[in-house]
């Protein structure tokens, strides 16, 4: 990757960003004159990837994940920077930047709440889905298949571990190294035959031995709340 420009002030960068062609913009959020969001709003050229660099708190970082933006935490680690650049080289730009920014803003204003929607980075762009409509997630090497009510599964460019972290607090449970389920779509918990669950789409998913106690405890909590 070649660095074609570096600017400390947003008003200096604005005319150059609108004039030049480039692939990725590493953008701080807090800057003099225009913050990162305001600078992006003033750009007429938006045909590039954005990587936010931020010292924001944990919730704001999760908001970047919800909206499928890449980010680097300050102080920036050289290894993480190299990994980010390598990942950018493997993917195409995902979806419409303006839609993605609007979605990020909507997540940020909800404070500590889990948002109702999530942005899924697919091979063809971003797909925005209701979290409540996700039935289960299945690992497929470095990708994950998302199964939704009434739709064909969606293959996204995230590992199951990343999806699990993203959906933390949204009533999902990892019941197997390859499976993450939405407990709101759980129809039956069968303890015989090694233990498995039946989901709202009719799928039967085995529960790994190491995850049985975790699932049982989660179901006990749900029964107590109900």
UniProtKB/TrEMBL annotation:
Recorded GO molecular functions are: DNA binding; phosphorelay response regulator activity
4-aspartylphosphate: residues carrying this PTM: 28
- UniProt keyword annotations, A-Z: DNA-binding, Phosphoprotein
Q: What SMART domains does this protein map onto?
A: LytTR, REC
Biological source species: Persicitalea jodogahamensis
This protein is called what? DNA-binding response regulator
Residue stretches making up the HTH LytTR-type domain: 118-221
**Which SUPFAM superfamilies did the record assign?**
CheY-like
Q: Where is the Response regulatory domain?
A: 1-89
